Each structure stands twice: as structure tokens, then as C-alpha cells.
């Protein structure tokens, strides 16, 4: 391993930020891939041991979206032959959640297509959360309903949601290439609303959409500014019938270097292997587990993932273990970073100036 990678791992273990130059070298430098993976894997093992957190997606409402995100099979004008349906019943969602929990999922992600929820949608989701919690009281519920309006994040939090997910997807500079109906800033605003309401912020990316390495770094650094607790890393699933349907630009090496970069940028944050891992990482999925500490189990929104039994085998074969419900995902040390103020105004001690 080169001095650069050893030093990078050491700095990441101390939670020191990467420079742009460091980040670009991880993506495009001449360091051997296996050395890059080994360096980032040190960081993953330090903060998360051998644990893999499993998450599952329930697509509550599929297709028929008025937005035009170019990667999405549910977008306006998509002719992908996906399932299209309106809201599923809360009982049906609770059944899916219970079987995913029995299969090892610690988090259930309730997702619905659309620009953002209306009042009736929020009521449906509140009811669904209640049903899921009746059967599986310990499961983490993450909600992903698009752009949030005033007061909606508070309602979801009060209903028992743990997290809100809204990906930034790509860099601000590249955003207009993939979507014209909302902006990067709209997405940032929703993430801030969710965090302000006390929901755990989840926000990630999709790679393989024509972005440059500078875009990858810009996005990683923009996400870092938002201080998410979880960061899903998707690789484009190029659905036929969407504008990006013909785009197959990723290699397993590119995916692994991106995951390594995200581990260095988010040393103690949940980095999740998400959509597209099977088709882009292919035989290298086990190596990816040395970088990500979390993954989706089962199917995605509109495409099928590999069988759950294969995922559990993959985890065991690579020497990892599924994280239990009672285990904390984020390392304790991260919480120690918050030091309650005991000096300055309101105390007898001098301020920290
Ligand atoms: S990503 Fe979401 S907002 Fe964009 S088209 Fe798909 S469902 Fe609609």
C-alpha cells in the first residue's frame, strides 16, 4: 500500500476531511484498486466491525410521476414496462415489512413516487407506520415521499418515522442534465426540513449518469455538508424507456473506487450499497462489503434485486454478520463528538474565545 493510502486511512480514522486532490486520486489515481479497497476497508472495520445492516424497500405507490428525473422508470413519459399502481393498503405494507424483518431487515423504507406528498398521503403513511409498528415495534422506518412542505416532516416524526430519505443524486452542476422539474436546491431544502424536524437524514447518490470525477467529488462534499446519518450509493439501472436507458458506463472498478471514496469522506456514517449493485459490481459485490456497512435486501422500487438468500450467503461468505435489531448502527464514538457546552454564557467559566 502506498504512503498516500496509508496516510489517507489514518486521517479518515481521525475523521479529518479529504482534499479535492485526495478524492480525485482515489477515483482516478494509479494506486492499485486492491490497495485502495484495503485502505478504505480499514476505516470501515474500525467504525463498523464486520456488521452489515440490512434495509428493505416497500414501494407504496409506483409509476405515474409528474416529474422528469431522467434515470427514473416512474418518470413523466417513461415507457418502461414497470408495475404501476396507486397507494397500497397499510395492512399490505405491514405484511411486507414483517416478512422483511423476519429475513433480517433492520430498516424498512416506505417510498412513493411523486413530486411530494399531499395531506391525504401523509395521513396514509401515518396509518401505515402505525400498522408496521404494531407488528414490528423495533424496526426503523424511513420515509421517502419526495419534496416536503411545511409541517410534513414533523407529522412523520410524530407518527414514529425514524428517518427521511431524499437523495441529492448528482452534483449541483450536473443536476440540470438529469431533471428539469425540480432543482438540486429543492432537494437540499427537503433534507434540511427533515433534519430540523428530528428525522435522521438519509441522502445519497446515483452514479453512471454521465457525471465526471469532479461531479462525484462535488456531490460527496455537498452531501458531507448536510451531515447525513446514512448515504445510499446507487449505480444507474438503465431502464429501457427512459432517457438514460442506453447508458452502461460503469465498471466494477469504478464502482469500488466510488465506494472507497465515500468511505473516506463518510468514515463513521452508514454507507449503503443500493440499487444497481448486482449488475455493475457483478462478481465484486463481496469486495464492496469491505467498504459499505449496509445494503438493501430484496427488490428495488421497480426492478428485482438478487434473491435474499443469495445476499445472506454473500454476507456470510465474505466473513460479515447481519446487524441485529438491538445493535446501534452508527459508532458510539460519533456521538461522543457532541460536547455539551459548560462554559461561557450562563456559567461562571470564561467563553471559548
Ligand atoms: S425519482 Fe421520484 S420525483 Fe423523480 S421521476 Fe422518479 S418518482 Fe418522480
From TrEMBL:
PROSITE patterns: RADICAL_SAM (PS51918). It comes from the Bacteria. It is an enzyme of class 2 (transferase). Keywords: 2Fe-2S, 4Fe-4S, Biotin biosynthesis, Iron, Iron-sulfur, Metal-binding, S-adenosyl-L-methionine, Transferase. Binds 1 [2Fe-2S] cluster. The cluster is coordinated with 3 cysteines and 1 arginine. Binds 1 [4Fe-4S] cluster. The cluster is coordinated with 3 cysteines and an exchangeable S-adenosyl-L-methionine. [4Fe-4S] cluster binds at residues 65, 69, 72. Pfam families: BATS (PF06968), Radical_SAM (PF04055). Residues 47-277 form the Radical SAM core domain. Pathway: Cofactor biosynthesis; biotin biosynthesis; biotin from 7,8-diaminononanoate: step 2/2. It catalyses: (4R,5S)-dethiobiotin + (sulfur carrier)-SH + 2 reduced [2Fe-2S]-[ferredoxin] + 2 S-adenosyl-L-methionine = (sulfur carrier)-H + biotin + 2 5'-deoxyadenosine + 2 L-methionine + 2 oxidized [2Fe-2S]-[ferredoxin]. [2Fe-2S] cluster binds at residues 109, 142, 202, 272. InterPro entries: Aldolase_TIM, BATS_dom, Biotin_synth/BioAB, Biotin_synthase, Elp3/MiaA/NifB-like_rSAM, rSAM, rSAM_sf. SUPFAM superfamilies: Radical SAM enzymes. Catalyzes the conversion of dethiobiotin (DTB) to biotin by the insertion of a sulfur atom into dethiobiotin via a radical-based mechanism. NCBIfam families: bioB. Belongs to the radical SAM superfamily. Biotin synthase family. Homodimer. This is Biotin synthase. It comes from Pseudonocardia eucalypti. The lineage of its organism: Bacteria, Bacillati, Actinomycetota, Actinomycetes, Pseudonocardiales. The gene is bioB_1.
Amino acid at each position: 500500500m502506498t504512503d498516500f493510502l496509508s496516510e489517507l486511512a489514518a486521517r479518515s480514522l481521525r475523521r479529518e476531511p479529504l482534499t479535492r486532490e485526495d478524492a480525485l486520486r482515489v477515483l482516478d489515481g494509479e494506486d492499485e484498486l486492491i490497495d485502495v479497497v484495503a485502505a478504505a476497508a480499514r476505516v470501515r472495520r474500525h467504525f463498523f466491525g464486520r456488521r452489515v445492516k440490512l434495509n428493505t424497500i416497500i414501494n407504496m405507490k409506483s409509476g405515474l410521476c409528474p416529474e422528469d428525473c431522467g434515470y427514473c422508470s416512474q418518470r413523466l413519459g417513461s415507457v418502461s414496462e414497470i408495475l404501476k399502481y396507486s397507494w397500497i393498503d397499510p395492512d399490505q405494507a405491514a405484511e411486507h415489512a414483517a416478512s422483511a424483518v423476519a429475513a433480517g431487515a433492520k430498516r424498512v423504507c416506505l417510498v412513493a413516487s411523486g413530486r411530494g406528498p399531499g395531506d391525504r398521503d401523509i395521513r396514509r403513511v401515518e396509518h401505515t407506520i402505525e400498522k408496521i409498528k404494531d407488528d414490528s415495534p423495533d424496526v426503523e422506518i424511513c420515509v421517502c415521499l419526495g419534496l416536503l412542505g411545511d409541517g410534513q416532516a414533523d407529522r412523520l416524526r410524530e407518527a414514529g418515522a425514524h428517518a427521511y430519505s431524499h437523495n441529492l443524486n448528482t452534483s449541483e452542476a450536473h443536476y440540470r442534465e438529469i431533471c428539469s422539474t425540480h432543482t438540486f436546491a429543492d432537494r437540499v431544502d427537503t433534507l434540511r426540513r427533515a433534519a430540523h424536524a428530528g428525522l435522521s437524514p438519509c441522502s445519497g447518490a446515483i452514479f453512471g449518469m454521465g457525471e465526471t470525477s469532479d461531479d462525484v467529488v462535488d456531490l460527496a462534499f455537498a452531501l458531507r455538508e448536510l451531515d447525513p446519518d446514512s448515504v445510499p450509493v446507487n449505480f444507474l439501472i438503465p431502464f429501457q424507456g427512459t432517457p438514460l436507458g442506453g447508458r452502461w458506463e460503469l465498471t466494477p472498478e469504478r464502482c469500488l473506487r466510488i465506494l472507497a471514496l465515500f468511505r473516506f469522506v463518510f468514515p463513521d456514517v452508514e454507507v449503503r450499497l443500493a440499487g444497481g449493485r448486482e449488475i455493475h459490481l457483478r462478481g465484486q459485490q463481496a469486495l464492496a462489503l469491505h467498504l459499505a456497512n449496509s445494503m438493501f435486501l430484496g427488490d428495488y422500487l421497480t426492478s428485482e434485486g438478487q434473491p435474499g438468500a443469495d445476499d445472506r450467503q454473500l454476507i456470510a461468505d465474505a466473513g460479515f454478520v447481519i446487524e441485529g435489531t438491538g445493535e446501534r448502527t452508527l459508532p458510539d464514538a460519533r456521538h461522543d463528538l457532541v460536547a455539551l457546552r459548560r462554559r461561557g454564557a450562563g456559567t461562571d467559566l470564561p467563553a471559548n474565545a
